[in-house]
Design goal:
heterodimer, A: alpha+beta, Serine Threonine Protein Phosphatase 5, Tetratricopeptide repeat, 6-stranded mixed sheet, 4-stranded mixed sheet, 27 helices, about 40% helix, elongated, B: alpha+beta, Rossmann fold, Immunoglobulin-like, 6-stranded antiparallel beta barrel, 11 helices, 20 strands, about 25% strand, disordered C terminus
């Protein structure tokens, strides 16, 4: 039912009422189709033959549109309404009344387009019927109301004062949102508008205003970097935006100042560079550039002065600081080179530093590196040749087997090269070291070593001999222990060839025990600073930025990237690392072989290796293994394939184990070292076991738990080993504490123990290899431990570091001979 | 001898105490005693009676110990001659007070003391003692060394038993004051004193110990020679035709534990690891020497039997007092040695020497009596190698059995679902698993060379053990890889398949026979 026309007072009733009113005042065109309905008031044919006929007669319409809302009463559509739609245009009549209609086309300029078309009709010859008809048609604008049964109408164009398009409404709302600093909503609306009409007039301006406003909001929230990003974007769009340059300067200066205050000059320069790229002549740029340059110049001058009079390491500290503050300083290359060549320093990025006494639970890579720096082994692995590790000795000039191998005569080195920083050892000191290892009452007693060595005799300060009860096959491997006895070990920070200079949670500093003479020209590394990074990603970032020049360990997925980089080298270690799981020999349940086999079959090692450590398929960088012995070693039996993952078999064996034990399998604790990747992999391991009915949990011991392994509460323990000489190292690998006495193998079957003992008695390489191959198979069948996988290890270094062996045996092999070129990052 | 003495005692009481009567009784007893003189229950042969006189064999229980105590004073102890004499005198008095008639003691100062008497004491050998002290004169020799230590005195001593030519291990103690030296020396000697006993084997096979001076009860009961629980070690004394001691031989792995002392002789338990530890021969006398654990441990070396020179490393030695006790497991080191500590009770323990599953020997030991011991055992290397190979094979067998079980279970599950193609594939997997014949061949491949090697080494025990091990494994293979079970499973699945096929066919036929919608339903059968 159509009601009488009346004024619209609220938006809620506006539309239906408008429809009703419209029925009274809008002319309906006969040219529409069946949807059109004739108005109550038959519209007089208003389309005139001429232009003047098209003129509105507002006096006639005023009464008809009185029920429509007025423009100034129309509330701006809300954010939700505009965002969700449906779109609408406001048709503003000459009476200031507003009709909401579906979007008109073309847009914008609908009326202009009509006018243009009308003008075109006048180009036709006069009295042209077609022109008349067209003009008649153009006199009315077809509209579609938003609601109602009858929605299609025509309105005389002459009655329309203007059209406020939907996009304009959005812009108005955007303005209001920006005025209220509601940047997020304004952004959403802008996006919607951009999607709708990317070239709408006013859109670009609103976008710029949004950037500006949002930058201000972020600044108020103390998110200065985000503010800078927004201002940079605004600068890109419109450099001349009002207030932009000031704001840019303010924000950038804040960031620069904060970074400089925190002594993070790289960061400070980064922001300065960004501002300079936008506005090279900006006051902030000029001011701060000058300041940094001045600071750097002062430091360089102090460095030069210190180099003349003071310790060279302090001179280098100053030069490095100058380079950090302003690497573009003109005098810097010369000054820095002088300081760096006088005191070559190597910076390395690591995941951890030594934390006091090495843990017997998990010998950490940090502890191994510290050992390399601060202890001299009588014999050290040098390289791999023909599947065997060859040893070298830094202490002896010669060592000669005597009496068909039942004796060894050692001649100590009497001279050292100038670049060396050696342990000053005499025959007496070494004899004490050896004697300690064969003394049953000494803490350093080694039962296996004592079974070989009968006595040691000192012939002169530089000559000693050892008599063997049984000739060892590889005496060098047997003598691969530190030269000083433990009871006389120097203070924590001493050592050879390097000493610990400083140690805290984030850094470890090692310095040459014997500095090279001041007159030396061709210098070798004097100091190594290890810096802890939270993750592999951070470490690589540090390398790329030039914060460090060496990464002793690089995660597998970074290796291809670094290998391809022109500024870096990567070196694969000669020996891979093998991850394995050991069993606690004190645990009765794990003495059951069926249970151990269940655990190994129920473990999808390939999947864990590929997802956690490699992030790619197994292959050159990592592979499954069936032994703790490296797959490249002569001792590896390639006929023994790793156990294949078979969950069904694992489950079946677990059930069988339960029956054999006579009770449920107890919940197991898997101890693992503090390493994010290992912890992640360990969790996946226990998840695999849960699927075959074995409950297990991962435990990461605290730093304070550094007692012997057998005292800790654990059932299984994650281990990472790298066996240089399996002939000697397989035994300690099998025992939790690395012991070599026979008592440590109490849990091992007698025949296996006998096999291991026969290894000590092997007389030639073939026999030893045969025994090791057999042992490989036996350990694999017995599942005395679970070899998980083998990872090829890599280090990465900047090309400025020279002297790194092609296939290093350890991270800092031959560190005394390394050199590092003077280089600083300009980033 | 007992009969003779008993009759002597009885006669002495019964007959009138006149001279002739006594002589008659003495003669009768002497005859009995002489008849028993050949039995080995006297620690030393009775001295030959002078010609023309009756030979009277004094029972061992009545024979006191002829003890010589030689005391050496170090110069640093600063004893004046008079003081030394007083000390020795007091010591002598103490021996009388403590040991009484059990000992006939001579106490003297060492006439040629060495500068470091204590160290010399430790270095003394049996030959030194034999040269210096004749067994004809003394049964026990105590060498004591007194030296100053700090504000007090350190007393060191060793005891030498002339009958068995055995030195005790040096012992020492510290006293704070000079006046404590004599009682300290007495305490030391009590600790060192190792009573001896004659060993008599009865016809029933029991062993009776006749303790020397057992009937001469000492005033201090703590000095009583044979008490219940005492542990003794037997020795053979071999005599030549002239009656001189030719050699002295310790009976290995054999111990006497006194059950209950009695006047007629102490009953004891013979604890031995030998099949026939004690035997009697002419000119061989068996004596027993009391043992005290004087070393904190005994180092036992396990060696292979000759001609092999090797030591047996990695062998398990279980130590326990008896079968009920949970043994402590030791492993022999690379020198083939295990160290058996002295227990708090200082009692005898049993050592079970095992190589894998085989018990090589079971031996009794009183730890601490001797600081070093060794035993020769069969070399079990060959059998151990076989045990290792069999263990590997068994591990593989367990896997195969488990896989078989898994596949069989899967077959049944698939069959229930009618997935016959998968069932066929699973049967193929089953067929591809190693069969019992393969394992049996593997066992033979292990058995034959090992048995051959055992035969070459003439080691029948090893040969027998190897055969047994392989036979047990073969039985396991037959039990768990029985081909019949697979055949039964196949037949069962064939049956099921047939039934399933029939069922499906029936169902299909029923479906085809269903009434079409246009035709009237067939009449129901009446």
């Amino acid at each position: 039912m159509i009601n009488g026309p009346h004024l619209v007072s609220t938006a809620a009733f506006r539309l239906p009422l408008a429809w009703t009113c419209l029925g009274a005042c809008v002319l309906l065109a006969t040219t529409f189709s069946a949807f059109a309905q004739p108005p109550k008031k038959a519209a007089a044919p208003r389309a005139a033959e001429s232009k003047t006929d098209a003129a509105a007669k507002p006096d006639d319409d005023e009464g008809d549109s009185a029920e429509l809302p007025k423009l100034d009463e129309m509330p701006l559509p809300s954010f939700e309404r505009l965002l969700q739609g449906p779109a609408m245009d406001w048709l503003v009549l000459k009476t200031q009344r507003v009709i909401e209609v579906e979007p008109l086309h073309p847009r914008p300029g609908t009326l202009e387009d009509i006018e243009r078309q009308v003008k075109e009709t006048f180009r036709l010859p006069a009295q042209n019927e077609e022109g008349k008809a067209r003009r008649k048609a153009l006199a009315n604008l077809p509209i579609t109301l938003l609601e109602g049964d009858a929605r299609e109408f025509k309105i005389a164009v002459r009655m329309i004062r203007e059209i406020i398009y939907f996009e304009d409404l959005m812009l108005r709302r955007i303005d209001r949102l920006l005025d209220d600093r509601r940047a997020r909503e304004a952004y959403d609306l802008l996006i919607a508008l951009h999607q709708r009409a990317p070239h709408w007039a006013g859109l670009a301006e609103r976008q710029q205003r949004l950037l500006f406003i949002e930058a201000a909001v972020r600044r108020a929230q103390n998110d200065w970097e985000a503010a800078l990003v927004l201002l940079e974007e605004l600068h890109h769009r419109n450099r001349d935006y009002d207030g932009l340059l000031n704001e840019l300067g303010t924000v950038a200066e804040h960031l620069i100042n904060a970074a400089a205050t925190a002594a993070d000059y790289r960061r400070a320069r980064h922001f300065l560079k960004r501002l300079r790229q936008l506005e090279p002549k900006h006051g902030v740029v000029t001011r701060w550039s000058q300041r940094f340059e001045d600071d750097a110049r002062q430091l360089l001058a102090r460095a030069a002065e210190t180099a003349r009079t003071g310790p060279p390491d302090q001179a280098l500290d100053l030069a490095e600081r100058a380079a950090l503050i302003w690497p573009d300083l003109a005098d810097l290359p010369v000054g820095f080179r002088n300081a760096a060549t006088r005191y070559p320093r190597l910076r390395a990025g690591v995941s951890d530093v030594p934390r006091g006494r090495p843990s017997r639970l998990f010998p950490a890579p940090a502890d191994r590196r510290q050992h390399q720096f601060t202890q001299v082994d009588l014999f050290q692995p040098a390289r791999v040749e023909e599947q065997m590790v060859r040893y070298e000795t830094p202490l002896f000039d010669e060592w000669e087997p005597t009496d068909l191998g039942h004796g060894l005569l050692f001649q100590l080195r009497r001279r050292r090269a100038q670049w060396e920083s050696p342990l000053v050892a005499t025959a007496g000191v070494l004899a004490d070291t050896i004697a300690a290892r064969i003394d049953p009452h000494h803490p350093d007693f080694d039962e296996r070593f004592a079974s070989f060595v009968e006595r040691v005799t000192v012939h002169s300060p530089f000559e000693l001999s050892v008599r063997f009860a049984a000739a060892p096959l590889r005496p060098e491997a047997l003598f691969a222990f530190p030269a000083r006895p433990a009871v006389d070990a120097p203070a924590e920070r001493a050592g050879y060839p390097f000493q610990i200079q400083a140690l805290d949670e984030h850094h470890a500093v090692y310095r040459r025990a014997f500095p090279e003479p001041a007159t030396f020209v061709d210098r070798h590394i004097a100091e190594v600073i290890e810096t802890v990074y939270e993750s592999d990603e951070h470490a690589v970032q540090g390398l790329l930025r030039g914060e460090v020049s060496l990464l002793p360990h690089v995660a597998a997925w970074h290796v291809p990237q670094l290998a391809a980089h022109p500024d870096f080298i990567t070196r694969e270690y000669a020996l891979p690392q093998t991850h394995l799981i050991r069993f606690n020999p004190q645990r009765a349940a794990l003495a059951n072989r069926t249970l151990r086999r269940a655990l190994v079959y129920g473990l999808d090692r390939r999947r864990i290796l590929e997802t956690v450590f490699l992030r790619g398929p197994a292959g050159r960088l990592g592979r499954l293994t069936s032994s703790p012995v490296p797959t490249t070693s002569y001792a590896y039996n390639s006929f023994v394939e790793p156990h294949k993952f078979d969950a069904g078999l694992g489950l079946s064996l677990a059930i069988a184990a339960k029956k054999e034990l006579g009770h449920d399998i107890p919940a197991l604790k898997l101890l693992c070292p503090r390493d994010p990747l290992i912890e992640q992999a360990a969790q996946q391991v226990v998840d695999s076991w849960r699927k075959i009915g074995v409950t297990a949990g991962v435990v990461v011991p605290g730093d304070s738990e550094r007692g012997p392994l057998h005292e800790a509460d654990w059932d299984l323990a994650w281990g990472v080993v790298s066996l240089a000489e399996p002939l000697v190292e397989i035994w300690p690998c099998l025992t939790p504490d690395g012991a070599t006495d026979v008592e440590s193998l109490t849990s091992v079957p007698a025949w296996l123990r006998h096999e291991l003992l026969s290894l000590d008695q092997a007389g030639d390489r073939q026999s030893a290899a045969a025994i090791l191959h057999r042992l490989h198979k036996e350990l694999w069948a017995e599942v005395h431990l679970i070899p998980l996988w083998e990872l090829s290890e890599f280090l990465a270094a900047r090309k400025t570091v020279r002297g790194i062996p092609q296939r290093p045996m350890a991270a800092y092999q031959h560190i005394e001979r390394w050199k590092v070129d003077a280089w600083y990052s300009k980033e | 001898m007992i009969v003779g003495f008993a009759s002597f005692a009885a006669g002495f009481r019964r007959f009138p105490p006149h001279r002739f009567g006594r002589l008659v009784v003495w003669a009768a007893c002497a005859a009995c005693l002489a008849a028993n003189a050949a039995k080995t229950h006297s620690a030393t042969p009775a001295p030959a009676a002078p010609a023309g006189e009756f030979e009277i064999a004094v029972p061992l229980e009545l024979m006191p110990y002829r003890v010589r105590v030689v005391v050496s004073f170090s110069a640093a102890a600063q004893f004046l001659p008079g003081q030394r004499g007083a000390l020795l005198e007091e010591l002598r008095a103490n021996t009388v007070r403590c040991a009484g008639a059990m000992w006939q003691t001579e106490v003297a100062e060492d006439e040629s003391p060495l500068p470091d008497a204590a160290a010399a004491l430790r270095r003394l050998s049996v030959a030194d003692a034999q040269a210096r002290f004749s067994s004809d004169r003394f049964d026990k020799v105590f060498l004591l060394a007194i030296e100053s230590q700090g504000a007090g005195y350190r007393l060191q001593g060793r005891e030498f038993d002339t009958a068995t030519s055995q030195w005790s291990l040096p012992q020492d103690r510290v006293v704070q004051e000079r006046r404590d030296i004599p009682p300290g020396c007495m305490a030391l000697m009590q600790e060192l004193f190792r009573p001896t006993a004659g060993v008599e084997q009865t016809r029933a096979g029991a062993v009776v110990l006749h303790g020397r001076a057992a009937w001469l009860a000492p005033p201090d009961p703590d000095w009583a020679p044979l008490r219940a629980g005492r542990q003794l070690e037997p020795y053979y004394r071999h005599f030549d035709k002239a009656g001189a001691v030719e050699r002295i031989q310790r009976v290995p792995w054999t111990w006497f534990v006194v059950d209950r002392p009695a006047r007629a002789g102490a009953a004891c338990t013979v604890v031995t690891g030998l099949r026939s530890p004690l035997w009697t021969r002419r000119r061989i006398e068996t004596v027993a020497l009391t043992v005290h654990p004087q070393s904190p441990q005994t180092r036992l070396v396990l060696r292979a039997r000759p001609p092999s020179p090797k030591v047996l490393a990695g062998v398990e030695v279980d130590v326990a007092h008896d079968a009920r006790e949970q043994p402590v497991r030791l492993i022999s080191d690379r020198q083939g040695a295990v160290r058996i500590p002295v227990g708090e009770d200082r009692r005898l323990v049993w050592l079970s020497v095992r190589s894998g599953q085989v018990l090589l020997a079971r031996l009794p030991l009183v730890p601490g009596v001797h600081s070093d011991e060794s035993v020769e055992l069969p070399d079990d290397a060959l059998r151990l190698a076989v045990e290792g190979d069999i263990s590997l094979l068994q591990a593989d067998l367990v896997d195969t059995v488990a896989r078989r079980a898994v596949i069989s279970a899967t077959i049944r599950a698939r069959a229930k679902l009618g997935q016959w193609a998968e069932v066929d594939a699973l049967f193929k997997q089953l067929a591809d698993l190693p069969k019992s014949t393969a394992y049996a061949s593997a066992v033979d491949a292990i058995r034959l060379p090992a048995v051959q090697a055992a035969k070459s080494a003439k080691d029948r025990a090893a040969e027998g053990r190897i055969q047994k091990l392989c036979d047990e494994t073969t039985a396991l293979i037959k039990q768990y890889l029985d081909a019949d079970k697979l055949r039964q499973l196949k037949e069962e699945m064939d049956e099921l398949r047939k039934i399933d096929a029939d069922t499906r066919a029936d169902a299909k036929a029923l479906g085809d026979e269903a009434t079409p919608p246009d035709q009237p339903a067939p009449p129901k059968p009446k």
